[in-house]
């Protein structure tokens, strides 16, 4: 059985990166990274756009699909032996996972904006971490649909997910996570 889960940390104004596409220190948090990296250790496949490698000492071991329009469908990634480059315009997710040779299990979607948005109809779960003291004016939102009157909660609700209890990851830094489930 396959499960599709999203993982993100947003600022209080729902951004994942600044306007130049950099993830600022204000939303990087050690407790959230620990939660995120431990979750990725348990999944079958990590999926992300070309700029959203999670990094860390165990990243190279993980099976991953990297979205790009530089290829027509599927191709090996010469710089990441456990990865395949994937253009969803030319191959389905099933085809991509088969080509990657990944086991059954959870697919973790880790960004950026376009990739988080593309998977909205498919998430079984979405882990929305929030750094409540950080603001990134003019930044890049978690979902393309975010606007002055549209929050990530609105978008996830619209797409059929329901929130669980808010859990504290780092009380001093006011970082929490809410897991949404379909
Ligand atoms: N706060 C968080 O939790 C979080 C999570 C994720 C990312 N980020 C940050 O956000 C920033 C990057 O954001 P981003 O939105 O630029 O990154 P991204 O999604 O990682 O990369 C964008 C690239 O991915 C490819 N791509 C995306 N959607 C595609 C699609 N539907 N079909 C084919 N290819 C597709 C394209 O590659 P080509 O140009 O090769 O065609 C596109 O230029 C980084 O700073 C990253 O660290 C933060």
Any overview of this molecule?
It is a single chain. By secondary structure, this protein is of the alpha/beta class. It contains four helices and eleven strands, in the order ββαββββαβαββαββ. A nine-stranded mixed beta sheet has the order 5-6-4-3-7-1-8-11-10, sandwiched between helices. The longest helix has 13 residues, at 30-42. It starts with a strand and ends with a strand. The model has no long low-confidence stretch (mean pLDDT 97). The structure holds NADP nicotinamide-adenine-dinucleotide phosphate (NAP). NADP nicotinamide-adenine-dinucleotide phosphate (NAP) binds at residues 8-9, 16-17, 21-23, 27, 48-52, 67-70, 87-88, 110-115, 118, 140.
Taking the sheet with the most strands, its summary is: 9 strands, mixed
**Got a strand count?**
11
Contiguous helical run count: 4
Bound molecules: NADP nicotinamide-adenine-dinucleotide phosphate
Topology as a string of helices (H) and strands (E): EEHEEEEHEHEEHEE
Mean pLDDT: 97
List the SSEs and their pairings.
Elements: E1 3-11, E2 15-17, H1 30-42, E3 45-49, E4 64-67, E5 74-76, E6 83-86, H2 93-100, E7 106-109, H3 113-118, E8 125-131, E9 140-141, H4 152-158, E10 162-170, E11 175-181
The structure holds NADP nicotinamide-adenine-dinucleotide phosphate.
Characteristic terms for this protein:
19% helix; globular; 182 residues; alpha/beta; nine-stranded mixed sheet; 31% strand; binds NADP nicotinamide-adenine-dinucleotide phosphate; two-stranded antiparallel sheet
């Amino acid at each position: 059985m396959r499960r599709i889960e999203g993982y993100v940390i947003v600022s209080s104004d729902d951004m994942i990166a600044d306007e130049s596409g950099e993830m600022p220190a204000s939303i990087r948090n050690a407790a959230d990274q620990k939660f995120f990296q431990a979750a990725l250790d348990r999944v079958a496949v990590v999926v992300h756009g070309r700029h959203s490698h999670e990094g860390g000492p165990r990243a190279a071991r993980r099976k991953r699909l990297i979205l790009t329009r530089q290829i027509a469908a599927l191709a090996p990634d010469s710089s990441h032996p456990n990865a395949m480059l994937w253009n969803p315009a030319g191959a389905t997710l099933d085809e991509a996972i088969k080509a990657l040779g990944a086991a059954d299990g959870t697919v973790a979607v880790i960004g950026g904006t376009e990739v988080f948005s593309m998977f909205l109809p498919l998430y079984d779960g979405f882990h929305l971490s929030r750094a409540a003291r950080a603001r990134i004016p003019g930044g890049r939102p978690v979902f393309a649909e975010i606007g002055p009157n549209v929050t990530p909660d609105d978008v996830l609700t619209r797409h059929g997910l329901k929130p669980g209890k808010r859990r504290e990851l780092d009380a001093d830094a006011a970082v929490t996570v809410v897991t949404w489930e379909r």
